[in-house]
Amino acid sequence: MDNYSENSNKQPPPAASFIKNLPPFVYILIVLGVIFFLYQVIGAGLTIAAGGVEFDKNIQVTRIVLSFSQFMFILGPTIFFTRLQTPELKNTFRLNFPSPLLLFLAVLGIIFIQPLLQGYMVIQEYILNHIPFIQDVLKQIKSLFDLVEEATIKIVKAYSPVEFIVVVFVIGVTPAICEEILFRGFVLKNLEKVSRPAIAIFLTGFLFAIYHFQPFNIIPLIALGSFLTFIVYYSNSIYLGIICHFLNNFFASYFLYKYGKQDMETPKLSDSEILDAVIMITVSLVLFTSVMFLFYKLRFKKESVQVE
């Protein structure tokens, strides 16, 4: 019995051995596929079962189920599949407290990137509305995604301070934790094994954008995802990603709560309005890149830390 126990401790389970031999990128795609199915299919089924097809009549129940689904079908499986790969969860998920200065710069970064992303969306909408030969086709495609957006707005729109707090938890706190653990934890750590930092950062941001399945927001999502990956990688702390992800979603929910949905149909923008958008983008880009350059200069350096 002693010999058996000793040998069994040395031999990893067959499933764990198989997973460890998988190429990291293949494992990423498998895990993202499984989690996508769990969340989008099983989670959606639970949402419909709990709130009904006309979910806006049971909006509070829908919000609770959506939040539960993210923890159950995104966070839970991410930790499970990561644990099959390695017992070093703290290292994989970068559960380290960042320096206060890097935290301050990261918060500045998420603030400065907001006008850049919004300005881009305005100009993109303007351009798409001025392409005659594909305008009708684009409008038909966009109308499908607008229906999804309208349903989403019903979930995230709040009409009282108490309801706003609930919304912030559902679309701010929950995805900030679950999606960061998945992308800036599991995905980033695996991509680091097979690519240089710049490529790993971009690919993580790209997969983050694709996963949201919002083709008309793909560029802003890639930019946001790459920014979040950048600050997590160079701070060695996922907490920066969680905080900035939360702030980004909080800003969106607050402006929706305060001002309602802004009309993005802007085919009649005047030249002065276009110029204002370009200036806003330029100023935002300069401030944002300056902060990120300083962030990189002050980045966490593993070689400078010796632990005995």
Short characterization:
Helix content is 79%, strand content 0%.
Structure, described:
The protein has one domain. The chain is 79% helix and 0% strand. It is built from twelve helices and no strands. Helix 8 (161-192) runs antiparallel to helix 11 (238-259). 29% of the residues are buried.
Q: What structural category arises from helix and sheet content?
A: mainly alpha
Beta-strand segment tally = 0
Low-confidence stretches: 1-10, 304-308
Order of helices and strands: HHHHHHHHHHHH
How would you classify the quaternary structure? single chain
Helical amount among residues, as a percent range? over 70%
What's the end-to-end separation, in Å? 37 Å
**Overall tally of domains:** 1
Q: How many strands, what sense, and barrel or not for the largest sheet?
A: none
Please tell me what the overall shape is: globular
Question: If helices are DSSP runs of H or I spanning 4 or more residues, what is the number of helices?
Answer: 12
Mean pLDDT: 84
- How much strand content do the residues show? under 5%
Radius of gyration (Å): 22 Å
Question: Which structural traits does this protein have?
Answer:
disordered N terminus; 0% strand; 308 residues; mainly alpha
What is the fold's blueprint, element by element?
Layout: H1 2-10, H2 14-20, H3 24-51, H4 59-85, H5 89-92, H6 100-128, H7 132-156, H8 161-192, H9 197-211, H10 218-235, H11 238-259, H12 271-297
